[in-house]
Amino acid sequence: MRRWGGWWAAVAVGVGIVTACQERLTSPAECPELCPGGSPQVFDTIVSAVVGADSSFPSPADWASGGGYVNRGRGTALLLSNGFPGSEDRPVYRFAPRSDQIAVRDTFRTFTIDSAQINVTILARDTLVGGLKLFLYRIPSGVDSSVSFTGIEPLLGPASLLDSIVVPDSVHTGTVSAVLDPTEVGRVAFAGTDSTLAIALRMTADQPTGIRVGSLTSSTAATFTSFVTVDVPDTGSVRHQSISRATAFNTFVTENPLVPVDSLLTVGGEPSSRAIIRFGLSREFLDSASIVRATLELTPVAPIYSLRGDQSLIQAVPVIGDVGAKSPISSDSIAIRQGTDTLPLVQADTIQFNVTRHVQVWQGAPDRPQSIFLRMGPSGEAATFARAQFFSTRSHAADPSVPVAPRLRITYQRSFRFETP
Amino acid sequence: MRRALVVLALLVAPLAAATAQSSQFGVRGLGAPGRALSTRAFSAGGAFGLFDGESGLNPAALGRVSALGADFTSLQDFRHVENPAGSASVREARFPFISIVGPVKRYPAVLGLSFANYTSRDFTLATVDTLPLRDVPVAVFDTLSSRGSLSDLRAAGAYRIHDDWLIGVGFHVITGSARMNFHRVFADSTNYQSLNQGSELSYAGVGLDLGLIRNFGPGFSLAATVRSDGHVNVDKDSLRAGTIDLPYSFGFGLRWRARPKLELASQVLMHTWSGANSDLLAQGGLGSDNNYEASFGLEYTPNLRRPARRPLRLGVRYGTLPFLIDTGEQPKEFGISAGTGIRFAQERAGVDLGLEHVWRSAGAFKERTFLLNLGVTVRP
């Protein structure tokens, strides 16, 4: 019995030792006694952009001739506002022509219009501002991309008013309609050979505000539907039909468009601009520093306004190859996500982009240009109220001692000096 | 002997990290010094180390071995650490000593190979600090960890002269590496990215030791040893980072069979680690000082006809540690130990068990640890 007891004791000890083999080594420490190599210091430095190497595209001359990344009206939304501090805008739609005959059983037949409906899609609004009301005006059907705010605004008078739409406060997005009954349908009647309806919009609300409405690019442009009675002896669906016309052209006009200036960096606007900023961090610095945070700091020339509840995005994207305006940009999702900043309602002071990933890429890829592209978020170009102009290396603030040129603020630490031994 | 080498190779091969107890007192310098002791010697506070052929302290002690055998030792460490930054309970398992020893046929000689921990550099230290970053205080959490050790590979031989004198010589290869890692995390992890940085230190050196045992009959013996380890080259990520002088070591011990069932022993070991002081200071360390260890132990054998069956071993030791963590005071340690063992399979195999409670301190830095040592002996 004692023999078996000894064996069991030995086995128990063995099992205990084996099961106790889980390691737990972490213990608290206090420097400098238990910090071999010391405690690494963290440094902060500001690096200005290469002087004269920052610019925005298109140039003022190209912009004046209509050049840009996304033209007015080609964005994912059209702007409409009333007293909004950012800008005063009016959207314009021109529908496809509506023939005065309709084909029924291989025969073109005339019709009479019973009623009509115009649908407008609201993409975004300030949901805290109530009393939104849209006004639809008929404008000359020859409207095109050369139209201006001063050319449209005088046309929006009582004589050209088609209808108005009261938008309930509960409706934040979606389609709203103006219906013209038989007594009003004459407002969309055509005379002579003209068979195209064009409209412009105005709005009112309880407070100065703006909304974004649908466009062709986002397949949310306005539609024009006529409900007609066809001149046929039948009854029912053949006799009563609807003729729907989609938007063939749309744009919006702005009272004070953002005009690029050579000495400033323009981002956004219509046609939309982008900017490139170049830096010249030394290889010695990049090879020896561990970057823990890098921010690109830009000082706006004037406040940048966004619509409440529909803030705009501005992006600082790393460049793969620097060839100017058409430089290929990185598709690194982490860098893009980090470098994207949501603008507040009013951005009046310095805006900071997290570009840590960008600078870390420069550390690992010496051939990668130290260039950063600035642009409005992909769905915001030529479709947002936010329009930005920043100081460049060629401009300065009213107080020259205040740094306003584009700059990198880099927080880094030197490589940890492991104590040897 | 060839079979013995194969056994040793099989034992050593899987032990990538074979080290002795690590501690906060092993953070600076070359680490926490190891003890090349079998479980039997460990259980008696190390007092029998200079006479124990299964330990690695004295090459002359190999001459006391009469049959081929291999010893494998594991060590479980349960430690409570205290310092000004706080306290923590840690634990780890290691394999600090392996040896294989066998006599040479037709000659009064014994050869042995052993693998021992020279110093251990296993630790993970966590610190918390607050740094002003961009005019905002940001908490940072640093973790510095090291995994590795210096190992002592010994090839030794002993020669018996009329059973009265045993002389031995050993050649040591001191080698190893330590993988260091520094990790920093910021409390504001949204804006500040964490850092991770690693480095590997590797070590290489050689040493030589001589040993002597004088037996005055079966009841009383004296032992002495002297060892020189020269220096160790330190490479950091394959680039030479420096050279550290290693110590001369001196040991003296006595063994007395006071009663047929009771054997007493004591020994003193001294290491001239002050020779490394200037090298450590030159490389940014806190320096080192000479250290010693004095130990006293006994082994009580209940059954003289079966002396290897559950003997009782007790020991006590006191010593200093070579590497300073606070320039004002040299670390010291005190330990009490106990253990026993059993042989079976016609004494061809055995298990020894030892338990030691150790107190270490240097100013505000303290730790208490229980060391559980399990030794397995095989005599093929």
Give the topology, please.
The complex is a heterodimer of chains A (421) and B (380).
Chain A: H1 2-19, E1 26-28, E2 42-48, E3 55-57, H2 60-64, E4 78-82, E5 89-95, E6 101-104, E7 107-125, E8 133-139, H3 149-152, E9 161-166, E10 174-180, E11 198-204, E12 209-213, E13 223-230, E14 240-254, E15 264-268, E16 274-278, H4 283-288, E17 289-298, E18 304-305, E19 313-318, H5 333-338, E20 340-342, E21 346-347, E22 351-354, H6 356-364, E23 371-376, E24 387-391, E25 407-414
Antiparallel strand pairs in A: 2-25, 3-16, 4-12, 5-11, 5-14, 6-7, 7-10, 7-12, 7-13, 8-9, 8-11, 13-14, 15-24, 16-23, 17-22, 17-25, 18-21, 19-20, 19-23
Chain B: H1 2-12, E1 32-33, H2 39-43, E2 69-83, E3 86-104, E4 109-120, E5 123-133, E6 136-161, E7 165-186, E8 195-215, E9 220-228, E10 231-236, E11 239-245, E12 248-259, E13 262-271, H3 277-282, E14 291-300, E15 312-320, E16 332-344, E17 349-362, E18 365-378
Antiparallel strand pairs in B: 1-4, 2-3, 2-18, 3-4, 4-6, 5-6, 6-7, 7-8, 8-9, 8-10, 9-12, 10-11, 12-13, 13-14, 14-15, 15-16, 16-17, 17-18
Describe this structure in a few short sentences.
The complex is a heterodimer of chains A (421) and B (380). Chain A is mainly beta.
Walkthrough of the structure:
The complex is a heterodimer of chains A (421) and B (380). With 421 residues, chain A is mainly beta. Chain A has 2 domains: 173 residues, Jelly Rolls (Sandwich), CATH 2.60.120; 182 residues. The radius of gyration of chain A is 32 Å and the shape is elongated. With 380 residues, chain B is mainly beta. Chain B has a single domain, classed as Porin (Beta Barrel), CATH 2.40.160. Helix content of chain B is 6%, strand content 61%. In chain B, strand 3 and strand 4 form a beta hairpin. The longest helix of chain B has 11 residues. Chain B starts with a helix and ends with a strand. The interface between A and B is large, with 43 and 69 residues.
